[in-house]
Design goal:
It is built from 22 helices and 22 strands.
Length: about 675
C-alpha cells in the first residue's frame, strides 16, 4: 500500500506538467497568428498598395520607352541670315531593352545584319566584342572550348569567361567572314549601348531597301527602328565654323573630357553635342529635349507605338555677328597680313554701348611656310605684349591715384636713366636732344614712353631724377597699375560668351624684377588678348563703362504649347572707371590728336581720312619671333558718340610693316560702313 505522502507528490508533479503545456501552445499559436498577419499585410501591399508598380514592371517586359532625337537649334546672324541649320537623313537606330542577354542581342544583330550593311572599313571591332560575338555560336564556342581545353560546363559563367579570354588572346586563330564581321560590328554597337539608351546602327547612306526590310521585320528585331540622323549644315560656307564651333558625330561619340558628366545628364554615347565655341557654350539651349515613344510588342509579335512626348527642337541663337562683315574682316586680315616672321593678325569690332560683337576674326600664320589658318577664337585664347595702346590706361591710373590731374599733368619727356637699368626713351627722343614738357593729351598724341614711366614712378611715391635707384620703389606698384588697367578690361577676363577665354600672362613682381615696372607702364611686359583690347577701347569710347562683350543677342525657344519665347541678352556693366569728366576728356582729346593732329609726332595720322572721323591709340611692342627681332603692331580705335569700336593686333612684323595696324583699320572701317551701318547715321 502506497504512502499518502508519495501519492500526493505524484499528483502534484503531473498537475505541474499539465499546466506548462497550454503556455507553450499559446506561444506557438501567437507566433502563427503574427506570421499570418504579416502575410496578410504583404498580400494587401502586393494587390492594392503596390499593384500599379508591379503592373508597370510586368508591362515593361513587353514594352519599352524609346527616346527619339530632335533637331538641334539653328543659329542666325544679326541680319536674320541662317548660319547653321540641320540636315536630316534616315538612319537605323537601336534602343537597348532594360533586360537583354548577349545571346538575344546576337540574334537581333544577325537579323539586322542580313538586311543592313555598314562600312566595315571605317569601324574597328574591339577584341572583347570580337570574342563575345564569336562565342555566341554554339559550334564556334565548342571549337574554342576544345582549343582552350576548358573544363567548365557549357552555359556557365566560368565557361563564357574562359572562352572569351582565350579568343581575346588568340584572336588570330579565329576568323569571321565579311558578312559575319558586318553583323559583329552591329552587335558591338548594341552591346556598347546603355540600357534604354538609343544608338545609331547606321546613320549615313542608308538605302531605301534597308529601311523597307527593317520596317517589315521590326517584330523580330526588338529595339531596332528607322529614325532620323541630323548633322550640322552651313548654308553660307564652313568659314563660320571657326567662330560657331563644331559638334560631335555618332562615330566620334561624346567628348572624352566630359563623357561622364554628359551621360549623367541623359545623353547617349553617340549623341550629337557641341564640342567647341558657341556650340559648346550654348549646348543646353541648342540640344532641345528628346521625344519619348512607347513601343509595345504583343503576343503575335506585332509592335505598336505610342508617342508619349513629341520632343522639342533646340532653341535658336540670334547673334550680334554680321556674317557679311565677319567674312570681310577675315579677308582683310588675309590680304594685309605681312610676310616674314608674322605669326598672325587679329581683329575685334564691337558696339561700345551694348557689347555686341560685330566681328571677331583671327588668322594664324605659319611663319615657316606662310600658310594661313582661320581661327576666330584666337581673339580670346591668344595673348601678346601690345605696346603703347595701354598708355591711356596708365595715364588714367595716374589720374585715379591723384599723382597727376587734368589741370597739372605736365611732365618732361626725357631719357629715363636709373641705376642698374639701360636708358629707356621715347621713339623720337633717344639721346635727350628732344626733351620737352608734355601734358597728358600731348603725351598720348606723341606716344611718349618716358611720360608714362614717370607716372608709374609717381604711383610708387617717387619723382624721377637721372641716376636714381629703384630700390625704394615698392613692388606694389605693379598691382596699382594692374588694378587701374583692369578697370578697362586689361589683364582680366572680359566675360565673353565663349569658352576658353584666357587672361594673358602677368610678369613677375619680385624685387629683382622691379625694373620691369618701367616696361609695364608702356605695354611691354604683361600680355593681353585682342578681345581685352576691344573691351578696353569700348570702355574709353562709352565714357568709362566696362561692358561685357557678347556674341549672342537673343535666344528663341518654344514652350510645350509651341508658344515662341524670345530672351534678349541684356547689356551688362561689369564695372566703371569712375573718372571725372575732365579726366575722361583729356584721354579723348589725346586719342583724337593721335589721328588728327598736324604735328609730325602724331602716330596715327594714317587714319585721318576716315569718315566719320575716328579716335585711336597705336601701339608698337618690341618682340622676338623665332630668334629674330620683330614688332607687335596694335591699335585701339572708335568713332566718338557712335556704335563702333575696334582692336587690332598683328604680332611678329618687321620694321617696314610697323603701320600695318592702320592699314587694316582703314579697310575694316570701310567694310563696317558698307556692311553694318550707314555712315550717315553714325552719331544719330
Amino acid at each position: 500500500m502506497r504512502s499518502p505522502k508519495r501519492h500526493g507528490s505524484r499528483r502534484k508533479t503531473k498537475k505541474g506538467s499539465m499546466s506548462r503545456i497550454p503556455v507553450r501552445l499559446n506561444v506557438l499559436m501567437g507566433i502563427v497568428i503574427l506570421m499570418l498577419v504579416a502575410l496578410g499585410w504583404r498580400l494587401v501591399n502586393l494587390q492594392i498598395t503596390d499593384s500599379a508598380k508591379y503592373k508597370t514592371e510586368v508591362t515593361s517586359a513587353e514594352s519599352s520607352i524609346e527616346k527619339t532625337n530632335v533637331q538641334r537649334g539653328l543659329i542666325y546672324d544679326s541680319t536674320g541670315k541662317v548660319l547653321v541649320t540641320n540636315k536630316g537623313s534616315q538612319a537605323i537606330t537601336y534602343t537597348k531593352p532594360r533586360t537583354i542577354t548577349n545571346k538575344q542581342m546576337y540574334k537581333v544583330a544577325n537579323q539586322v545584319g542580313k538586311y543592313v550593311t555598314i562600312d566595315t572599313s571605317s569601324e574597328q571591332l574591339s577584341g572583347a566584342n570580337f570574342a563575345m560575338y564569336y562565342i555566341q555560336s554554339t559550334k564556334r564556342a565548342q571549337k574554342v572550348a576544345k582549343a582552350s581545353g576548358t573544363a567548365a560546363a557549357p552555359g556557365t559563367d566560368a565557361y563564357v569567361n574562359a572562352l572569351t579570354k582565350y579568343v581575346e588572346k588568340h584572336q588570330d586563330q579565329f576568323t569571321l567572314t565579311d558578312a559575319q564581321l558586318n553583323k559583329a560590328l552591329i552587335f558591338q554597337k548594341m552591346a556598347n549601348a546603355y540600357s534604354l539608351s538609343t544608338v545609331y546602327l547606321k546613320e549615313s547612306d542608308v538605302k531605301q531597301s534597308e529601311i523597307a526590310n527593317i520596317g517589315e521585320r521590326q517584330s523580330k528585331m526588338p529595339g531596332v527602328r528607322v529614325g532620323i540622323y541630323y548633322t550640322r549644315d552651313y548654308p553660307g560656307g564652313n568659314d563660320i565654323k571657326s567662330l560657331i564651333g563644331a559638334t560631335s558625330t555618332s562615330k566620334s561619340g561624346l567628348p572624352s573630357d566630359s563623357v561622364n558628366e554628359l551621360l549623367t545628364k541623359g545623353y547617349s554615347r553617340d549623341d550629337i553635342v557641341g564640342t567647341s565655341y558657341l556650340e559648346k557654350q550654348y549646348e543646353d539651349t541648342l540640344k532641345g529635349s528628346k521625344g519619348r515613344v512607347k513601343v509595345t510588342t504583343g503576343k503575335d509579335d506585332k509592335t505598336t507605338e505610342e508617342t508619349l512626348y513629341a520632343g522639342q527642337a533646340g532653341g535658336n541663337l540670334n547673334l550680334t555677328i554680321n556674317n557679311k562683315f565677319q567674312n570681310d574682316v577675315e579677308q582683310i586680315l588675309k590680304d594685309n597680313i605681312p610676310s616674314g616672321y608674322t605669326t598672325g593678325a587679329y581683329a575685334v569690332v564691337l558696339n561700345p554701348k551694348t557689347g555686341g560683337v560685330y566681328a571677331s576674326s583671327g588668322i594664324n600664320r605659319d611663319s615657316s611656310t606662310g600658310s594661313l589658318t582661320s581661327d576666330a577664337l584666337s581673339t580670346v585664347n591668344q595673348a601678346n605684349v601690345v605696346g603703347s595702346v595701354v598708355k591711356p590706361a596708365t595715364i588714367t591710373t595716374g589720374f585715379m591715384n591723384n599723382v597727376i590731374t587734368p589741370q597739372n599733368s605736365t611732365l618732361t619727356d626725357q631719357p629715363i636713366k636709373v641705376a642698374g637699368t639701360a636708358a629707356k626713351t621715347s621713339w623720337w627722343n633717344q639721346n635727350g636732344s628732344g626733351n620737352m614738357p608734355l601734358t597728358a593729351d600731348k603725351a598720348l598724341m606723341m606716344s611718349s614712353n618716358t611720360y608714362v614711366m614717370q607716372v608709374m614712378l609717381k604711383l610708387g611715391g617717387l619723382n624721377y631724377y637721372e641716376g636714381m635707384s629703384l630700390a625704394s620703389l615698392p613692388t606694389s606698384v605693379f598691382q596699382t597699375m594692374r588694378d587701374g588697367f583692369s578697370r578697362f578690361g586689361l589683364g582680366v577676363k572680359t566675360g565673353i560668351d565663349l569658352p576658353g577665354e584666357i587672361t594673358g600672362i602677368r610678369g613677375s613682381t619680385s624685387r629683382s624684377d622691379i625694373g620691369k615696372a618701367l616696361d609695364e607702364s608702356f605695354g611691354q611686359y604683361d600680355t593681353y588678348t585682342t578681345m581685352q583690347l576691344a573691351q578696353y577701347a569700348a570702355t574709353i569710347a562709352n565714357g568709362g563703362y566696362r561692358i561685357r562683350p557678347h556674341i549672342v543677342q537673343a535666344i528663341t525657344t518654344r514652350d510645350r504649347n509651341n508658344n515662341k519665347i524670345t530672351t534678349t541678352i541684356p547689356t551688362e556693366v561689369m564695372g566703371t572707371v569712375n573718372w571725372t569728366a575732365a579726366q575722361r576728356q583729356m584721354i579723348w582729346d589725346g586719342m583724337n590728336e593721335v589721328v588728327h593732329s598736324s604735328s609730325s609726332y602724331a602716330t596715327g595720322t594714317g587714319l585721318k581720312d576716315i569718315k566719320p572721323a575716328v579716335s585711336a591709340k597705336t601701339g608698337t611692342a618690341e618682340t622676338f619671333t623665332d630668334g629674330h627681332s620683330t614688332l607687335t603692331s596694335s591699335l585701339i580705335s572708335f568713332v566718338p558718340n557712335s556704335d563702333v569700336a575696334m582692336a587690332i593686333v598683328v604680332p611678329g612684323v618687321d620694321q617696314a610693316n610697323e603701320n600695318v595696324n592702320q592699314k587694316i583699320a582703314k579697310a575694316i572701317y570701310a567694310a563696317y560702313w558698307k556692311d553694318v551701318q550707314d555712315s550717315g547715321s553714325a552719331t544719330k
